[in-house]
Write a structure and sequence with these properties.
The protein is built from 16 helices and no strands. It has about 290 residues and is mostly helical. The chain is globular, with a radius of gyration of 18 Å. It holds the Pfam family HTH_67.
């Protein structure tokens, strides 16, 4: 199966997963469980499957955030709310949000879930800490809640693979954003500010990429820079597509067909902002825009 198929399905899964970051139900739930502020809610909820880990583990897994940004939330988050309580809150709130933004999920979750479970069972957890931690969580009885968890597990599988592809090429977290911004024309502030990097950090990363011949003197991508980014994205797709091969062509087509209306509804709800630091394009069928 061509790696581009993995990107196609990511573009349908990500809008469903992303309610946990942007939907008011989820932001409120993270606050009510005890997490202080949006970013502690983000780090606490996303890292909770790992347990009450120290900041270093979250820095490594989240990769493209400035370490100081992580350390403002972790490990303090676990003093305000135990990971088990955070997991319950995030699951309930995400299911509530998904019902609102993608009402078609109510009727189709029970058909989609077995397909996603088959993919997850075929995926290798080696070197993928966020995927493995989410995979091992007990699923809620609610089919919509289970659907949200499956989308989360698989997007973390892709994300873990993306981190591996970047680090294999010697690209740091900040450098990955600089290269993405240069290649895609994305406003640097969207990536820089939402991931905690300063202007000095950004400039230093730009200088390092230029020294490697990946950017020119104006910060524009060279042919080598575009080739490297294309290689990383292609490698990410290739790593992500392997478990979907378990479905076969017919099963994969069925999954795509079932997910499409849910993703369209979620995107049309205006819950997810555009542009966004996730690199998600405005429509699942749009051209690739990051991973």
């Amino acid at each position: 199966m061509d790696g581009g198929r993995a990107r196609e399905v990511w573009q349908k899964l990500e809008p469903l997963h992303a309610v946990t970051y942007f939907a008011p139900e989820c932001v409120t739930a993270h606050r009510e469980v005890g997490l202080r502020g949006f970013w502690m809610g983000y780090f606490g909820a996303r890292a909770a499957p790992l347990g009450a880990v120290a900041a270093g583990a979250v820095e490594a897994a989240f990769f493209n955030f400035h370490p100081a940004m992580v350390r403002r939330a972790i490990p303090d988050a676990w003093g305000f709310a135990a990971p088990e309580a955070v997991l319950r809150a995030r699951s309930t709130a995400a299911a509530e949000a998904l019902r609102r933004v993608a009402p078609a999920a109510v009727a189709s979750a029970e058909r989609i879930n077995p397909l996603l479970e088959q993919v997850i069972a075929a995926a290798d957890g080696a070197g993928r800490p966020l995927f493995a931690a989410n995979r091992d969580l007990a699923l809620p009885d609610d089919p919509v809640g289970a659907l949200w968890q499956h989308t989360t597990t698989l997007r973390e599988h892709r994300g873990d693979g993306h981190v591996a592809a970047l680090t294999a090429e010697g690209v740091s977290g900040c450098e990955s954003h600089v290269l993405f911004s240069a290649c895609e024309g994305t406003d640097a502030s969207i990536l820089r500010d939402n991931r905690g990097w300063s202007k000095d950090d950004w400039q230093a990363a730009t200088d390092r990429l230029a020294a490697r011949g990946l950017l020119d003197g104006e910060g524009r991508p060279t042919a080598g820079g575009r080739a490297l980014r294309d290689h990383v994205e292609s490698r990410t797709d290739a790593l992500a597509v392997r478990p979907y091969e378990e479905l076969g062509q017919r099963g994969f087509a069925q999954l795509q067909e079932l997910l499409a209306p849910l993703a369209e509804q979620a995107l049309a709800s205006d819950t997810i902002p555009f542009p966004n630091p996730m690199g998600l394009p405005a429509r699942p069928a749009a051209s690739a825009n990051g991973a």
